[in-house]
Inverse folding.
């Protein structure tokens, strides 16, 4: 079953990447390619959970290979099977952890850009994009400085960029529905757990209930399914000798739920520790030496609409050409998870390439990874 599933997701990747992910899409007609017919024949437009179950009959493996729909803002019972491509990237292509932690990736990108003459002005806040009609002419900073621009690339969450920087909120943005949010606990700890790996997913017994509570009922999980990442398991240099780093993610509703996280946050922190200890992380709370917490309200305060770090949900009407386009007017371009192709580190990096293509035109020498 698993090997047939690998063949299925590998075909998905090959058919999706070149024509539907790694490409600027302006119209539904851009989707009409031979690969669209292949995706239909493959079952890519069926529902994700039953499609995974076609290959993996054990409920535990079905969960492992379908929970990723949560990152797309959907239950695996509602998400299209095309989103099994996430499992391809996780399980077939492989997941790599950068030496020095995830922040090594943006530092390396910034270093490469600086070598090519880019100047970064850290700590400079842009409050408005000045435009004449549909053409941007400059950006205005919080100090009143005016910086002229031939092209403006906006990387904030797309709805926030429209509302706060361009001063408008088109229908394509107003209509959006959003993914769930998450409560994130980062802990420096004296505890070591010998039976865990780098990434650890702990499912509750109420599998369907998790999605119903988070997405439909917009309330906190009664039987949580959670992610615990232990970066120092793969890179011991990230922590002092005898210490470990833990990244604990509990999915939550976004701010549409109306939860007051200023009052709920401290209580939920204790609930997170209780669940962890119940799931086998003995003494987790007492072993924490330093911690940092991010609630849905904190995500919103950092500029993520509805406090949703996974951006707009990837429902059919918010996918591909139906997701907000990555260009406004003559010379404003968007990058990030709020535009095409969507959420996740690989997709956001692709969005940067697509944004560059809007500015410089297609690179005729470029070949999508799916074609290599």
């Amino acid at each position: 079953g698993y090997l047939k599933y690998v063949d299925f997701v590998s075909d998905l990747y090959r058919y999706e990447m070149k024509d539907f992910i790694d490409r600027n899409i302006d119209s539904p007609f851009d989707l009409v390619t031979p690969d669209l017919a292949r995706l239909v024949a493959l079952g890519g437009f069926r529902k994700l959970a039953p499609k995974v179950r076609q290959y993996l009959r054990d409920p535990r493996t079905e969960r492992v290979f379908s929970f990723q729909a949560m990152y797309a803002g959907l239950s695996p019972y509602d998400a299209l099977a095309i989103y099994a491509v996430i499992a391809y990237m996780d399980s077939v292509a492989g997941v790599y952890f950068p030496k020095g932690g995830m922040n090594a990736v943006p530092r390396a990108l910034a270093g490469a850009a600086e070598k090519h003459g880019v100047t970064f002005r850290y700590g400079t806040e842009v409050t408005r994009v000045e435009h004449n009609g549909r053409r941007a002419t400059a950006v205005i900073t919080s100090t009143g400085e005016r910086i002229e621009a031939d092209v403006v690339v906006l990387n904030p969450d797309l709805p926030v960029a429209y509302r706060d920087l361009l001063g408008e909120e088109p229908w394509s943005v107003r209509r959006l529905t959003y993914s769930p949010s998450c409560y994130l606990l980062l802990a420096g700890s004296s505890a070591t757990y010998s039976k865990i790996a780098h990434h650890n997913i702990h499912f509750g017994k109420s599998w369907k209930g998790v999605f119903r509570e988070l997405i439909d009922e917009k309330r906190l999980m009664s039987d949580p399914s959670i992610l615990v990442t232990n970066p120092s398991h793969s890179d011991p240099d990230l922590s002092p000798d005898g210490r470990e780093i833990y990244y604990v993610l509990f999915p939550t509703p976004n701010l549409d739920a109306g939860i007051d996280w200023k009052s709920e946050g401290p209580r939920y922190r204790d609930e997170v520790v209780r669940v962890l200890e119940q799931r086998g992380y003995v003494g987790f709370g007492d072993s924490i030496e330093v911690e940092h917490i991010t609630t849905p309200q904190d995500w919103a305060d950092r500029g993520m609409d509805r406090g949703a770090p996974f951006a707009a949900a990837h429902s059919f009407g918010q996918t591909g050409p139906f997701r907000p386009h990555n260009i406004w007017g003559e010379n404003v371009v968007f990058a990030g998870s709020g535009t095409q192709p969507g959420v996740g580190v690989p997709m956001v990096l692709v969005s940067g390439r697509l944004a560059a293509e809007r500015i410089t035109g297609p690179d005729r020498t470029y070949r999508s990874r799916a074609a290599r």
